[in-house]
Amino acid sequence: MPVSPLPSRPPHPGGTVPSLVVVGAGPRGTGLLERLAANVPELYGGSPLDVHLVDPYPPGAGRVWRADQSPLLWMNSMAEDVTMFLDESVTCAGPVRPGPTLAEWAERVRAGRIPAPADPALAAEVRRLTPTAFPSRRVQSAYLAWVYEQAVAALPPGVRLHRHRRRAVRVTGPRDGRQRVWLEGVPEPLTADLVVLALGHLDSEPDDEQRELTRFAREHGLVHIPPAYTADADLSALRPGEPVIVRGFGLAFVDLMVLLTEGRGGRYRTDDHGGLVYLPSGREPVLHVGSRRGVPYHAKIGYGWWGERTPLPRFFGPEQVGELLTRPALDFRRDVWPLIAKELAYAHYHRLFTAHPERTRVNWPDFEEKFAAAAPGGAGLDALIADAVPDPADRFDPVALDHPLAGVRCPDEETFQSYLRDHVTADLDRRVDRAHSPDLAVFLAMLSVYTHLVPLVGSGRLAPRSRLAEVDGWWHGFFSFYASGPPAPRLRQLLALSRAGVVRFLGAGLTVHADPRARAFRATGTTWPGDVTARALVEARLPAPSVHRSRDPLLRALAEDGGGGEEVLYDGTTALPTGLLAVDPGDSRVLDRDGRPHPRRLALGPHTNGRAYAAFARPRTNAPAFGQNDATARAALAFLRTLATGDAPPALTA
């Protein structure tokens, strides 16, 4: 994308070296640093530049991916599907500097072309890593540290990097002058011509519901663990053998499951029939887990692509998004979802007809022509599919996918335990069976949809309630459920834990409430009659972002002094705050409380409404974060260049 220079300022005072402060040295900050290094020769030349990188956690990995966490915790992506480097698929104006995926990096370590990590155990783990293995987060930490080192080494001689292993607590300064970045425990601030906040995933203070549950727990001597990053949560209050209600069946639950079983000394063995058996340590609690769907996320697909590629995007790409952007107001379900559903169905049927033609009645060209002409979501499309695909099991049904336990009513708890074990086993079998390769095509189509949805959501054309409920809520949840599930071995472990009685399934439609008469938490679902009471409740999900409730002192201070505004959507006169820091979609400048873009402050990442969440990505998927990093780096360098050369145009009227 073309450079959109930030508002320029008069020449730098006193001839001092221009300075950029980046708060956050995790994957997002590292990605930005790589883009700065790539774009400096074109946009900044050989002039001196000071870059300050501020983060108390290790550079590259940051807090979430730091090596100092349990080696039992894994990534939920295969090594070959993780990269920090741009490739030819990325839409950007800057130069593409390719680099190795995580799997390729590990291969180079094995070959001696890249030094192994200093920790012998970690080095051995890296050398054992195969492309289709799921690495530990410690391995990813080592990869990210190496990427950071490469980005630093690529900086031209005139660019000096300064590391500050402290927490940034406040940013002050006038709109038309140098900024001051205050560090924890340091009396004098860093001075900056430009500040980029790459804060990553942040903790939040509990909302009203969570505070009330915590109050109830304190009053009755119970345990309540609110939404948190599981690796950082204090789980010591969960007693051996006691029932624990767990609300949430996604990746946070998987981490919780691991830490409370293997993390407490349990282990697995393989029986004579190849099945997995859990051997308890006796220190485990009993986890009663449920959610809205009542089932765990789908396992990652265990095979690769072969044969003809599905041509994506087809029905939801730049052309369709451009047409949607001409409309004054959009509703996701009415205007956008039919196109997305058709895109996902197209990927499914293209794969079915080209890889498994024996399960269809007509040839692909005839079907594709009629499919393309049919209205999205219309009865004609359903009739076409019914005629061409005889087995209903071969048809793409997003409603059934989204409600896997719809209509399931078991007479008692034990019957449901067996039913859900069968459900998970069937999912595991399907995810390694190449006969179901349309599932992989839908997965790839979802990644494509996610990329093209970003500019549409950022445009502000979606009705506020539709965006919050349908995009940020339903779509993101559906995407995660289908495409961002755990490695298959984790679900095999879940089955073993269920058979051992360490995990119990609560089912779909989970509701949890505080029961003052029982002095306990009570959980009920819609899949089997009855309920479960427990003295402990764990919210197995990440904290929702919140500018005003953030535990990050810098972000909270920005909200309090008005320098950083929360994104607020308006449905008529009703304000709908999103909890996200508002930024300009063009160049990521921070918007203040009054909606004015700040000339000297930018922000990237999941705490913003910039929409590009993932700091690293699957190769060749045009990851939105990569293009956003490039655009931000180029805008920053264009701005700083005016200070270095003294050729700035007149100052922006603030």
Automatic annotation (TrEMBL):
InterPro entries: HpyO/CreE_NAD-binding, L-asp_N-monooxygenase_NS-form. It comes from the Bacteria. Residues 21-201 form the FAD-dependent urate hydroxylase HpyO/Asp monooxygenase CreE-like FAD/NAD(P)-binding domain. This is FAD-dependent urate hydroxylase HpyO/Asp monooxygenase CreE-like FAD/NAD(P)-binding domain-containing protein. It comes from Streptantibioticus cattleyicolor (strain ATCC 35852 / DSM 46488 / JCM 4925 / NBRC 14057 / NRRL 8057) (Streptomyces cattleya).
